Amino acid sequence: MQAMQTYRFGKHPPKRDYRTLRFQDYLSPTLPPPEPAHNVLAAVYANLRNADPTKLFPLDGNDTLGDCTIAAVAHASTAYHALIGRKTIMPRAEVVKLYLHLTGGIDSGLNELDVLNYWRKHPVAGSEILAFAGVDPRNHTHVKQAITLFGGVYLGFQVQRDCLQEFDARTPWTAGPLTPDGHAVFAIGYDRTGVTVLTWGNTQAATWGWWDECVDEAYAILPLEAKEPGFAPGFSSAQLAADLTAVAS
What we know:
alpha+beta; 9 helices; 35% helix; seven-stranded antiparallel beta sheet; Cathepsin B, Chain A
């Protein structure tokens, strides 16, 4: 009899820092409302000629280690590269190595903010980011705009009781009693019913009710491609990068 696949969590509670820039401060007032639905994977699959999320966004050690914060970074990097036609999948060994480097060699989990600050200063999986900004999880419009403009949202949530059962059953995550655990994922799509995220070597749907109950932090990330002309119209990426440099110094 085949053993059931195991999965791990590992995100710490949100770390608050008054210097964290806010996504809403850089939106143009002329930015149109977000589309009713958008999924980054359509472009990812077309550009890479591969529509298998289990191959493009692997488990990355998150079955035995609480390295979800780094696995989500690896998935984001793959998506960013795919949007410009490059296939880059961070090897499991590199995900685990970076995770243990940031934890000091123990399987302790990590804060998302610490991971993002590290990524801003060091390339990860050949991917560099210019800046990041916090998105108010309660503002669904801003969440949708961040996914559309920047190819996804790096987010964290407090795990609901039936999280693993719903994932195994391939049914959407729904709101439920919360556990003490936290998990990090990368959101790459939304529609009227909810969002789609990457985690544990696959995609996972989740309702907006789940989002409102469980998500406790979300970030828009500006990859290196933000330097290209025409990137993210309606959003002042140059000003965000400049402001982040100012508060960091």
